[in-house]
Design a protein that fits this description.
11 strands; 3-stranded mixed sheet; 2 domains; alpha+beta; Phosphorylase Kinase, domain 1; Aminoglycoside 3'-phosphotransferase, Chain: A, domain 2; globular; 41% helix
Length: 323
């Protein structure tokens, strides 16, 4: 069945009267902007990933419902600007139409900036991330709450996928460098503290497509990759879009709410590399990345990843991979 038809059927399960459906994008989900008869706008997600690249642990109904439960908690109890999830007529967050899981959320307007552009942007983001992590420690889950973990198994999965990296243009040097980095990360994970101050529910995909700026406010959308992980990993993900000179301001604002450990720079660098490795679980499953993945990894291996392997700090020095 066509996606638009699924969207129209899904909306029938909610107490709104839709007058317009605008296709926005498809990556982890198919996204429609839905307008109702009161001119109110919503985000309708159809859980159909591009090229069916996402593992079932991200797409099953229980995992999606758990995402909505956490998002609902953040919407109600934190000062962070996040989307509001809506329940259907059966008081459920997930609506299943023709075996497709669908969710309805509030629509947030604003600007997507390609990178963090100012001190103010950095302070706003550090503050928002800290507010989310603060509420993560206060969120009580039940046995039915299921979200994946960004732990050693996810790094091991990425390393196993490197066998197909040649098909994506990666050289032997790239692959061997990634393996060395992965083994160093795995060794770190064996010794790192997983206390509630370090580990909990994280967004896990804080990049420019999921950040919305509007005036003096910043919002975070798409919690589809959320799961259990080290809190500093969220900041590390953001630093893929943050100039070196502005990174200290993210930490400054974050530390005002969630206190950083003495070795936070070293850990953030490790999680930066870990996030790159983890992304290969997706990138090495879709054909669209064959056009650019080798160049992307080439820059990373010669800069951040090689520095990490050689115990050389890169968070505030050197040349970031995007330049």
């Amino acid at each position: 069945m066509k996606n638009l038809n699924i969207a129209k059927e899904a909306i029938k399960s909610y107490t709104i009267t839709a007058t317009n459906y605008q296709f926005i994008a498809q990556s982890g989900n198919v996204i429609y902007k839905v307008t109702d008869n009161n001119n109110k706008e919503y985000c309708l997600r159809l859980n159909i990933s591009k090229n069916n690249a996402l593992d079932e642990k991200w797409t099953n109904k229980q995992a999606i419902n758990s995402e909505m439960l956490w998002l609902n908690h953040l919407n109600k109890h934190s000062q962070a600007n996040v989307q509001k999830p809506y329940t259907n007529k059966n008081n459920e967050f997930v609506t299943t139409i023709y075996n497709v899981n669908c969710t309805l959320l509030s629509w947030l307007e604003g600007e997507h900036k390609p990178y963090v552009q100012s001190k103010q942007d950095a302070l706003l983001l550090g503050d928002m991330i800290a507010k989310i992590h603060q509420k993560s420690t206060q969120f009580e889950t039940t046995k039915s709450f299921k979200r994946p973990s960004y732990d050693a198994s996810y790094i091991e999965s990425a390393l196993a996928k490197l066998s197909k990296a040649y098909e994506y243009g990666l050289s032997k040097y790239h692959i061997e460098t990634l393996k060395k980095a992965g083994l160093k990360i795995l060794n770190l994970y064996q010794n790192i503290d997983k206390s509630e101050k370090m580990w909990g529910l994280i967004h896990a995909d804080i990049g420019y497509p999921n950040i919305i700026f509007k005036g003096d406010n910043v919002s975070l959308i798409d919690f589809g990759a959320c799961g259990y992980g080290f809190y500093l990993r969220d900041i590390a993900s953001l630093f893929g879009y943050t100039p070196l000179s502005l990174r200290k301001y993210v930490f400054e604002a974050y530390n005002n709410i969630c206190k950083l450990t003495a070795n936070y720079v070293e850990l953030t660098e490790a999680f930066f590399v870990a996030a790159i490795l983890e992304s290969l679980n997706f990138f090495l499953e879709v054909d669209d990345t064959k056009d650019w993945l080798a160049n992307y990894i080439n820059k990373l291996t010669h800069r951040e990843i090689l520095s990490f392997i050689n115990n050389e700090s890169f968070l505030y020095s050197g040349k970031p991979f995007w330049q």
